[in-house]
non-specific serine/threonine protein kinase
Amino acid sequence: MAANPSNIFPCKLLCFFFLLIVVALASSENSESDLASLVAFKNDVNDPLGALTSWNATIHFCNWRGILCSKRHRGRVISVNLMSLGLVGSLSPHVGEPIIDFNRLSALEGFIISSNSLEGDINFISYLTNCTDLGSLSISGNLFSGTLPNSIANFSSRLTFLSMARNKIHGTIPSGVQNLIGLTRLVLEDNFLEGSVPVVIGKLSKLQEIYMGTNRLTNEIPSSIGNLTLLNRISLGENDFVGTIPQSLSNCTNLLALDLSSNSLSGSIPIEIISISSISISFNLSHNAFTGSIPTEVGTLINLKDLDLSHNRLSGQMPTTLSSCIVLERLHLESNSLEGEIPGGLSALKGLQELDLSQNNLSGSIPTSLVDLNLISLNLSFNRLQGEVPARGVFKNGSAISLRGNANLCGGISLLKLPPCPPTDFKKERHFSNLWKILISVLGAGFICLTLLLCICKFAYRRRSLPEPQPLVPLFPDSFLRVSYADLAKATDGFSEANLLGSGRFGSVYRGILDETRLAVAVKVLNLEVKGASKSFISECNAIKGTRHRNLLKILSVCESTNFKGIRFMALVYELMANGSLDPWLHKDYAGEGGEPNSRNNMNLSIAQRLNIIIDIASAVEYLHHGTDSIIIHGDLKPSNIFLDDNMTAHVGDFGLTKVVSNIHDGSSSSMAIKGTLGYIPPEYGTTNKMTKQGDIYSFGILVLEMFTGIRPTDDAALNGQSSLHQLVSHALHNQEMKIVDQIILNEHSDQKMQLKLKNCVACVLEIGVACSKEFPKDRTVMTDVVRELQNIRKAYLVG
């Protein structure tokens, strides 16, 4: 019997409404689940900058900052983007469950929490495997640690972007990475990953960018990387790779940038690799052990901007085909064994800004055609060049060129202090008669002989009547190490760039290990071409000589000699400070690769460490002012001149601007042309040429304020309209505001009682900084009182 159509329609309609109810209930349940996960996240992280103030009950969570919901499925979170919000906290699992239950956020397509200060075991990402639509995952620039879990093999096949750079992740790269077949960008740089790059990485056929630099990866670069034909960026620098560059890399014909620098790669540079004409951004094989000549096929790189083959063992002549690389902006071939002449065809590189051919065996003359280039920097030092130095183009700027270590050069601008070139045109000589020529020669020879005789007599007389001449370098105790130029060159691997710790106004500092004692040292090499460098050298020697204090950087030796090419050489040898200067502990850089800004690194100082360091500095300055027979004025107190040993004890260094004042005179000042560093120079130095103890106290005060606010005195943006760091802090203290204090300090304690104690401590320290940096010198606190007050503050905080 046929069904009545009039009875069927109500049944279908009833089923339809039932389905709608089921979908609505499921959607509501999922929405509440997503909300609960986000609320749990907010409750378990610190938000010192107030970035998550919109995360409250008055605003629908789909409108919260960093949250994006699906338009199709209202209330389902599809993206969490909390990049660079200053968030602090741990995402470690609690007894098997994470702080934020990512299993609930199953609709997630993007999860970005990079550039914060989040920490915990990296294993928390395992909970994202339930997010089957996940396309982007970035946790870069945080403090996550632990080993990469094998569970990454279970991530969504739709994942295209995976970034875990700049964390503290260690262990090996799991072979399960081969399952991420949708990846186009893989960013693992700046961690502690070790072992081999898994061969199965060659299965990620869609990969376009790979960043694994600055890790501890070893063994050979897998040849399977050549299967990734879509690659346009490869960054494997600063690892421990060995062997040769795999030939299969030539299959990557879409490559734009290649960085294999700072490894232990060897062999010749493969012609097939240097012939990848698509490379246009950078080609960097520096700091390896490549041998042989530079292939002439380098001329294939007609779109390349940056070529760096420096610090290898390359030999032979510079290929003339380099002139075909007409887009080059940087060309670095220094520290090899290249020979022959500099190709004149380099003049075709009209966009070239940096050219460094130093420390090779190049000979011949400097091509005059180089004057036609708009070079910003030219380094031809330590070769075997000869002949006249041009005086046009970049050669007019003495600070832009370096020609040291080329004994047979002549001419050029006066600043180079090269000998004049001998005349070469004899055609216009006057033709004297033979008689006149003979007469002039005889008279000239007689005059010269008479002059020499008088000089010898005068010299003999002076030797009898004058005391022995004093050496340029002040005498040091016999307990000081005796080192030669050869010792220092060997200790620093020929003053290699790899051992360069930093550069300043008057020279560069290198890390080294003395051969006989195996002592780790810092070698400060003076750049004698810079005006005032010799004076700085003598000032530093005079200042440190005879001083003994635990918080002064200890000088181990001095060296005044000549290098292997007969050029004058001056250097100071110090103890090597294991933790470097104070500056990077206070201020963090934000430049990195991988397409994301770099976050603050892991060099954070606790308040206890800051108290210890500032007391160390104050003790050193007090000693300089009151602890010797003479008053020693440092003249350039700033974070980069404070050095930290392996126990984080501070040592005051860099006495290049120091003045020693005799107590016989006024005992408080010294005349000089005022120098120093902008932001730390006291205001009175602008109207007087007197260096004073009060000037040091002002610089110390600014240093105190900088240490506890994290604000540079020259950072106009951070000064928020105030004229100086002193004014900014004074205003904040007057209004009892603590927002200027470095957030790392304020986040150190979550306990309310400890928070109050911490804030009181910081306020007292800032008051000392303000008192030391007052405008008028007579109003500034003396260092003896500063040391005593700081010690009392530390005792009250740690014990009271």
